[in-house]
Amino acid sequence: MFQTMTYTGTVAEQYNQLNQQLDALLEGETNTTAQYSNAAALLNQFLTNVNWVGFYLMENSELVLGPFQGLPACVRIPSGKGVCGKAAETSAVQRIDNVHDFPGHIACDAASNSEIVLPIIKDGELIGVLDIDSPEFSRFTAADENGLRQFVSVLIKHI
Q: Which helix (DSSP H) or strand (DSSP E) does residue 158 occupy?
């Protein structure tokens, strides 16, 4: 049974606790929908000041909405379009302090002001992205980026 926990210590220590929890949560599960769903739910429970947490998965050279927590979202995003598409196209993390300044930003939720997107690459192949939106400008820090990179690494180990 899953139990919420209180994360303590520095931001890095809190992400370490989160990532250990994710590892235990996914251990032994082979269904990727269940893995992505629980990963999104866990991350949504952990993060503060976010309004959307979820995955877009590659299908025929475009990103297709996967498991998420938040308001209904855009279903398909072409590679190279918006923050998610840019992360997919470049295979690089996109940490955007103000999405309104990002050329071609796709606004699925008008309340979103900042965003971080991390590519999910397994065996050299892009399989999707982790997308997190916040109504707070400059919500995501370098410490968040580092912790989320580790989160994605734990996820990749299980999918």
A: helix 142-158
Tokens 């995003």 -> residue? 77
For 11-158, give the CATH class: alpha beta
Q: What is the pLDDT of residues 26-73, one digit of tens each?
A: 999 999 999 999 999 999 999 999 999 999 999 999 999 999 999 999
Query: Which sequence spans correspond to the domains of the chain?
Result: 11-158
Question: In sequence order, what are the residues at sequence separation of 6 or more whose Cβ sits closer than 8 angstroms to the Cβ of residue 104?
Answer: 81, 82
pTM: 0.96
* Helix 32-46 × helix 142-158 angle, to 10°: 160
**Residue closest to 49 by CA, chosen among 112, 105, 109:** 112
Tens-digit pLDDT profile for residues 16-35: 999 999 999 999 999 999 99
CA 36, 80, 83, 118: dihedral to nearest 10 degrees?
40
Tokens 């050329």 -> residue: 103
